[in-house]
Amino acid sequence: ILMVLISIQDKLVYKPSSVSQGEPGAHGFDAFDDVELTTDDGVRICGWLLRVSNDKSLYSNAPTMLYFHGRDKNASFRLKKVKELLDTVGCNVLLVSYRGFGESQGNPTERGMVLDAESAFEYVKSRKDIDQSKLWTYGESLGGAVAMSFAHAHQSELQGLVLENTFTSLLDMINRVHPVLTPVRGLSRNRWRSDLRMPELRIPVLLLSGLRDSFIPPRMMKELHALATASAYTQLVEFPGGTHNRTWRC
Description:
The chain is of the alpha/beta class. The chain has a single domain, classed as Rossmann fold. The protein is built from 9 helices and 10 strands. It has helices at about 1-5, 10-15, 55-60, 80-90, 110-125, 140-155, 170-175, 195, 220-225, and strands at about 15, 30-40, 45-50, 65-70, 70-75, 90-95, 135-140, 160-165, 205-210, 235-240. The chain has an 8-stranded mixed β-sheet with strand order 2-3-6-4-7-8-9-10, with helices on both faces. Strands 1-5 form a two-stranded parallel sheet. Helix 9 (about 220-225) links the parallel strand 9 (about 205-210) and strand 10. The radius of gyration is 17 Å and the shape is globular. The termini are far apart. GO terms for molecular function: palmitoyl-(protein) hydrolase activity.
């Protein structure tokens, strides 16, 4: 039983889907580029650079957000949400499906998804029409752990980090969501230790917490906020009506 639990851990953590919610044009985007990247370990991942305008003088001066989605479905299911973010904030958004999600190849693991984030960042840095002094990162749910890991490694190149309804660590979530795995959680290859990275983060951090989140306890967002002791600026914004997937609508 122990070996079975260890072997299926990735399937319990990640819930990818190849079903598409359509291209950006179907969600109101007029300016976007299809993106296909090859990671350092040879995996092809796909997504889009969603721009605020086709006018280079506008999008090249706008901030750019690297957006990391949650554990289920794929990037196309976030297009509606990202459209509102783009319109409200006025930023370009790079949105990529992790390996194993959507049209991206491979299978999701913590190590692999860290490489996916690195490839996404290398792509943004290769774009001479993107202002490299205005780069941010945003992570929702599991994507918050991806964004945290990425931001921790690239603090000098980012203006800030936004976290939405994310957890302290995957080990803490195992206790909550899959208690049967608690005795073997130390053997998990997926750890996502945001609780260890947050105290070392110096860049500004904005935490968006839905108080009606029934999946990730809001207390975890409070714990992360309390751990942001080295950050230049940190703010926890709580939304009384916010659920796990709908805080952005509040």
